[in-house]
Specification:
The chain has 520 residues and is α+β, with helices and mostly antiparallel strands. The chain is 42% helix and 21% strand. The chain has two domains: 241 residues, 2-Layer Sandwich (Nucleotidyltransferase, domain 5), CATH 3.30.420; 227 residues, ATPase, nucleotide binding domain (Nucleotidyltransferase, domain 5), CATH 3.30.420. It is built from 20 helices and 24 strands. Helix 3 packs across helix 5. InterPro entries: ATPase_NBD (IPR043129), Carb_kinase_FGGY (IPR000577), Carb_kinase_FGGY_CS (IPR018483), FGGY_C (IPR018485), FGGY_Carb_Kinase (IPR050406), FGGY_N (IPR018484). Belongs to the FGGY kinase family.
């Protein structure tokens, strides 16, 4: 084998940890490192992170991986791409210094500001502008809260940055934002792909003055400065691209490279992706985001709130009997649940599980939905209960895929990475539920920094043919085919899953409102 000439650096600033990898053009990992991220909770419904800690962790990680890889490799790093959790509000001054902790997407303190904005603009008009359902997770309400409650800091603000944009600034000295995260802020007018004057007028802020002009995900926005090189151990002059959200990088990491493929990054939550050659209408439950993959200009991007988290919740709260059995027989609890679920027939004896333990994002987009078991009877077995949890999360996945297909996209195969790819039973249920083969990817595939590597590698010419690079680097461990008997059962039962929730939606909303009033 000849000498490897090209290396790439990908990093993801996630909600719980920051992780980076230096990867060779043949897919070999030269070095990798991670550091945990801390959440700060200054008050009720408040979630923050310290941007200075992001950079300190980044410096430590870069120093570790550059030392681990060695000077010869570092000299051949051809590009850097960084992704991050989103949407975040980080105000910085004219010198790029954080003025306060970053307010993250989980922060709910600006609910009143959100209601004010939507009331002023009107729900339908707001959805038309931003191309999605209003949520406290996004930026217009956070900006308004910051302006109202911390006016002195607002007056010092030069720009609002995302986590990856702040790290990019520290590397290059340029304040930028990428079009992927910009399209998720709910400050962007998706019809013009420019910052919305209408939303800015309502909150009393000229968004063009505070939000950098969106750049393409793979656009080179600058080069590692001498100062940054000294801090990090990198070489000055390495190109840095705009980067993207961790969701978009995860999509690249699944190996999606052509229309007709769907991807699921299956962990605590699930991120579901389906490529499209046309832009969606703005008022759909799942909408398209811009995508830099050649031949795939748009991608439907749908987060499911609790998938792996639902299984973990079941184990911790309802599976004491199974935990004890697994312990006594020296079995992994997840392995045992996979075996037990197969003792139940498809449909779990008529038991439906609705995995809305934290509300639901796509395609329901509400916080009042709740987890439910429906259909229990005296004849129910433990195996039925276990299988219903696997099936419930698969019904939720089908709900997303069916919604996307109704919007005009096509999905003929599902590529799964992350922890969910380790469960063959779950994957067999998903294959049968969706009526398509499921490709189970190896553990390194789906790692978000690998997606960052694909983005920058394609841009700088290390991976001129992304499809070919994906085929060489992203390994498929197994292809799971649908089971005909299961397909027939799920086709009959899926409509009940959708309709039963629809019948309960109004009651769940009223229940949530009543419980909120009781708690005050």
């Amino acid at each position: 084998m000849g000498r490897v000439e090209n290396y790439l650096l990908g990093m993801d600033c996630g909600t719980t940890n920051i992780k980076a990898v230096i990867m060779a053009e043949d897919g070999t990992v030269a070095a990798e490192a991670a550091r945990p991220s801390r959440f700060l909770n200054p008050g009720p419904d408040m979630q923050e992170q310290d941007a200075k800690e992001w950079w300190a962790n980044t410096v430590e990680i870069f120093r570790q991986i550059t030392e681990q890889a060695g000077e010869d490799v570092v000299k051949r790093i051809r590009g850097i791409s960084i992704s991050s959790h989103t949407v975040t509000l980080l105000p910085v001054d004219v010198q790029g210094r954080p003025l306060r902790n970053a307010i993250t997407y989980q922060d709910g303190r600006s609910a009143n500001e959100l209601h004010y904005i939507v009331d002023k603009i009107g729900f339908e008009r707001f959805v038309q502008i931003v191309g999605g359902q209003p949520s406290v997770a996004f930026m217009p309400n956070k900006i308004l809260w910051f302006k109202k409650n911390e006016p002195e800091l607002f007056c010092k603000t030069k720009a609002f940055l995302q986590a990856s944009s702040f790290i990019n600034y520290k590397l290059t000295g340029n304040m930028t934002t990428d079009i992927d995260q910009a399209s998720r802020t709910q400050c962007l007018d998706i019809s013009t792909m420019e910052w919305s004057k209408e939303i800015g007028d309502v909150i009393g802020v000229n968004l063009d003055d505070y939000l950098p002009k969106p750049r393409l995900v793979d656009e080179i926005i600058g080069f590692v400065t001498d100062e940054a090189a000294k801090e990090t151990g990198l070489i000055a002059g390495i190109p840095v691209v705009a980067g993207c959200s961790d969701a978009m990088a995860a999509m690249y990491a699944t190996g999606m490279s052509r229309l007709g493929e769907a991807g699921e990054s299956s962990g605590t939550t699930s991120l579901v992706f389906v490529g499209s050659d046309i832009k969606s209408a703005p008022d759909l439950p799942v909408v398209t985001k811009p995508c830099a993959i050649s031949g795939m200009p748009w991608v439907y991007d749908a987060p499911i709130q609790t998938s792996g988290a639902a299984l973990k919740w079941f184990i911790e709260t309802m599976a004491a009997e199974e935990r004890q059995y697994a312990k006594e027989h020296d079995k992994n609890i997840y392995t045992y649940l996979n075996e037990l679920a197969l003792e139940s027939k498809p449909g779990a004896g008529g038991v439906f599980f609705f995995p809305y333990l934290l509300g639901e994002r796509a395609p329901l987009w509400n916080e009042y939905a709740r987890g439910m078991f429906i259909g229990m009877g005296m004849e129910m077995k433990r195996a039925d209960l276990v299988r219903s949890v696997f099936e419930g999360t698969a019904y939720a996945l089908r709900h997303v895929i069916e919604t996307v297909k109704e919007s005009g996209a096509k999905a003929k195969v599902l590529r799964i990475c992350g922890g969910g790819a380790k469960s063959r039973t779950w994957s067999q249920i998903k294959a049968s539920m969706l009526k398509m083969p499921v490709y189970l990817l190896d553990e390194k595939s789906g790692d978000v920094p690998v997606g960052d590597v694909f983005i920058v590698g394609n841009k700088v010419g290390v991976f001129p043919n992304l499809t070919k690079a994906v085929e060489q680097i992203v390994k498929v461990n197994e292809i799971i085919q649908p089971v005909d008997e299961w397909v027939q059962a799920y086709d009959k039962l899926y409509p009940y899953y959708v309709e039963m929730y629809q019948h309960l939606d109004g009651d769940l909303r009223r229940l949530k409102n009543m419980l909120d009033c009781m708690g005050k």
